[in-house]
Amino acid sequence: MLNFAGRLTFLKKYISILLRYKIAIMCGIVAATAFLGYYATRMRTDNSIEIWLSDDDKDLAYYRSFLDKFGDEEFLVVAFSAVDMFSQNCIREINTIAEKMKKLEGVRSVASLAEVFKDKVASPHFKEILHRQNRPILALFKRQITTDPAYQKTLISKDGKTTAIVAVVKCVGPESRKQLVAEVKNLLTDMVEKQKAAGNKVRTYHIAGPSVVNAELDRMSKQDMARFTPLMFGLSVAVLGCLFRRMSGVLIPVITVGVCFVWVTGCFVLFGQTMNMISNMLLPLTFIVSLATAIHLISHYYHELATDYDCHNTLEPQDGRVFACTSTGSESRNIAAISQTLRHVGVPILMTTITTAIGFLSLVTSNIPPVRVTGLFMGGCAVLTFIVSMTMIPILLSFVPHCDKIWMKIRKRFCLSRAPQIAGEAFSSSWGKHGGTVTVVEGEGLGISALLDRLWYFITRHRNGILLSTLLSGAVFFFFTVRIQVESDIMASFSGKSQITRDNAFIEKHLMGLLPVEIVADTANGASILQPNVLKNLVTLQQYLYTMPEVTSACAITNYIQRANQFVNGDKPRYYTLPETEKEAADYLKLASIYGDKYVGTLYANNYTSARTSVRMKQVGSNRYGEIVDSIKEFIKNKLDTKNLSWHITGIVPLMINVQDNILWSEIQSFSLAFLLTFISTAVVLKSVKIGLISIIPNLLPITVTLGLMGMCGMKLDAATIMIASIALGISVDNTVHIFYRFKKELSIDGDHAKAMRATLQGVGKTALFTSLSAAFGFMVFSFSSFKPVQYFGFLTCVTLLNAIVSDLLISPSCLLFFKPRF
């Protein structure tokens, strides 16, 4: 660390270079912003399963081998109801939709009543029955479909009035998935328009499935962030205007935050990254860090501008002198104020940058790729914000006198309230070791200074009570914290009134579950899956699965073999059983295509060594899903053959749920490491282990309070809400470092802790208050979102920021006065 003289010389040179070449530097910043802004506009959102798994992930490797064996299993469902679903018009309508869906890019196959009807009518067995019974084709078809377990609650509801058109899809990425969902919706919209034009009854179509959920997650998260981010800026600007009441006090933070936003986003895209539910936190963090840095610099600059300097010598305030226009000139005075601002605030800002960067870089230890990337960019964001702020803000501050003169003229012209002095309204306080008195000028500083003085008086008299209350309240909130549930639930992200929630509820009620799970049985040593004892295992598994209320269907080759056996034996129900020999099972499996059952080919491997049970479950959270999977594994272990068969549970949704839980626990571990490293680095930069330990108290409380509120309100801790703790840590540590650093400096004057704390609150208390209030009101707008992750994020961040400022202005001073560290 440079000594005072060396630091002052460096500052003089730095300011001199900045101001000498300020036009060229600003042009460079504008050019860089335009370049990165181009890439920022190309930001994409991707929450698909592929991004969360490493290439060496064993579950992913097995899932890929599963797709090679059995084909794709991700699906999209279109459903609607009709009074007579087996009428000619309905079958024609189903066929029209199915044929159009087949032509869409990414659709592998389509299953529908129309497809089954065409296959059945062409099968010899159906023709024989039709000739023998002499009944209408559609009536016979209806009887066969509604009594066949393979189609019940898959393509047709139990009452026969609701049908599903199921498309198996293969999407190479999020954009193709979103495009496919959009094209299906457009197709259904065209159907509705044609019905209206023809004067027919308008259908209500429902669309759902994993593809729809993924596309909707991307769309809604991107839409709400795009809608509410400008409102966040607008509300923050309004708060800054009320607090600073200067044009420069509003414009400089907004410009700084805007440039940091563009640079961070542009770099993110430039390095080939896409936004997801984890990296979405990068932009709010950029907003908080850059806003805090700008407010700290600007607020201190106004304070320095109210002090007279000998600008040609020491740049120190002259003892006993009150601000007045002197012969040094406003330009030199402005440069002196900038130099003093960087000298007094630059070091703590650098310290907060270091602690914040170290904390977030700890996320790179995660084994989840998006968490690693987000941690890396969060650390880079802190460094980039520091560079941009320390370069651009001093240059912008050099224009403050000119801007304020213009603002004064505008206010005077339109008969607005008294404009602030160019020098700015100052605090009423003693100025550190210099002893220079700064006069209170009538304005906004008076009220906040008086408030901070009253706060200091309250803290000095009641610090023990404050710490005791902190301990008790922390214990209460910690009690609710341990009750918080850790769970990932994709559908819980959407409002109960949203279209996707209503569509899912309709389809799950009338047809099938929309949570696909695949249970694969592999034989050992190339044995056939068609052996009677192996098939019995599949039937036993199916029977167990149907005991679970969440399971709506469990389809395997046994369904088709048993159905073929029944057909061959006069279609009598008692023959819906497994054959006694492997050869009969193989014959019945081949005969299944004759009866119009093409789907059976996707349920076994071509070499007959593997078979899958394709399960459809109702949407459940990760906790219940985990219980179901554990019970299935336990049943397989105890009741099924595990010597000759190996069993695997796979599928895109199981992978997604497992990944979400892995993300959650990975973030908890990474945050714990970040918390530890942050306070170690705080102790290092402040050169005091005791200070590092003390700083844990005011920074732990906001996080505990927020998590406790989540426990009280029944909010789940998931991959999105866990990042609130990181936001809380970032903003709390920022203000804590500023307060502790300023207190250390003030304490070095005469060793009086009470006086040092009063000067500290007057010096940085207002800035901390401005920072937290501006950010809190800004994030509050996100709580009005209909997308629950964004809604919870806005509400919890706002609460956390308010908790953080109370902790920093009340608990931090109480800790310092109680423990009385000597640094």
What does this protein structure show overall?
- This protein is of the alpha+beta class.
- It folds into three domains: 4-48 and 214-488 and 658-819, Multidrug efflux transporter AcrB transmembrane fold (Up-down Bundle); 75-204, no CATH class; 515-617 and 620-650, no CATH class.
- Helices cover 64% and strands 7% of the residues.
- It contains 25 helices and ten strands.
- The strands form three sheets. Strands 2-3-1-4 form a four-stranded antiparallel beta sheet, with helices on both faces. A four-stranded antiparallel beta sheet has the order 8-9-7-10, sandwiched between helices. A two-stranded antiparallel ribbon has the order 5-6.
- A hairpin with a 4-residue loop joins β5 (429-431) and β6.
- It is elongated and about 110 Å long.
Record keyword descriptors for this entry:
Multidrug efflux transporter AcrB transmembrane fold, alpha+beta, 4-stranded antiparallel sheet
